[in-house]
Amino acid sequence: MTELDVRRESWPIRGSFAISRGSRTATEVVVVDLTRDGHTGRGECVPYPRYGETVEGVIADIESLRVRLGAGLGREGLQTALPAGAARNAVDCAFWDLEAKRTGKRAFTLAGLSAPKPLTTAYTLSLDAPDIMGRAAAENAHRPLLKLKVTGEGDLERVRAVRANAPKSRLVVDANEAWTPELFTRFVPELAGLGVAMIEQPLPAKEDTPLASLKRAIPVCADESCHDASTIAALVGRYDMINIKLDKTGGLTEALKLRRAAEAKGFGVMVGCMIATSLSMAPAVLVAQGAAVVDLDGPLLLARDRDAGLRYDGSTVHPSDAALWG
Length: 326
Hints:
Strand content: 15-25%
CATH class of the largest domain: Alpha Beta
Number of strands: 14
CATH topology of the largest domain: TIM Barrel
Oligomer: single chain
Distance between the termini: 20 Å
CATH architecture of the largest domain: Alpha-Beta Barrel
């Protein structure tokens, strides 16, 4: 019998964090504990309003599994018991952690993967005025990869300010669906000249058809347009890369499947995150091994992290200890 505990937690962000859809000063997460035979596995998710998710709704979806979990529902059955999304992610990752603790094997071994190695993660600069983003870039100019949140008009000035203050950093920009085809056409040549290495989700997910015909000198990555493996086919010809986030895929199980499907179609892989604690990042580190772009900086954006959290040496993130997850 598997016992369920689910709860919400609020973690303060250092300062505030803004993207094209708004700003916030804290991140709300949902944590799942699954207990069986004296062992407890944990998983964490971040409900995302962009996909119609709320903390209350995600908790209700997880609570709806309580009887079935007690009756023997396992990780494989979970894949059809809940749709892809935050709720399934927390439960799925808790199952992986529980299995690791019950068997005494690390999660990467259970998944048939090699032992994970440290990764270089992007560090995200919150959307702001060009001069403020420039100052943030100067403070983080030592980091090898910076990710800029952008929003439309004024973005060239933002990128120029960042580039001037972080001349050696590799840059990627994330529009969070805020551009139009006209802005894309106008921005791309300039961004290429500024050394931008990748553009993430420039157009709205339901209005991204023009990407199939728009000329570009910079790879384009699908984020909001890519959720689980079933969404891959529609992206061919529109995108060069996909961003895998466990809160979109519904957990590590589907994330690994999505990565295999994406690579089979020739897509480059980025592995990203929501702003969350190390408990959310730990499973994603397994998916991110060998990825072209790694964006697992969630804990770096928080005012504090969990005990036994991931170790960050500058922009290098180390795999989790078993005390945290897996």
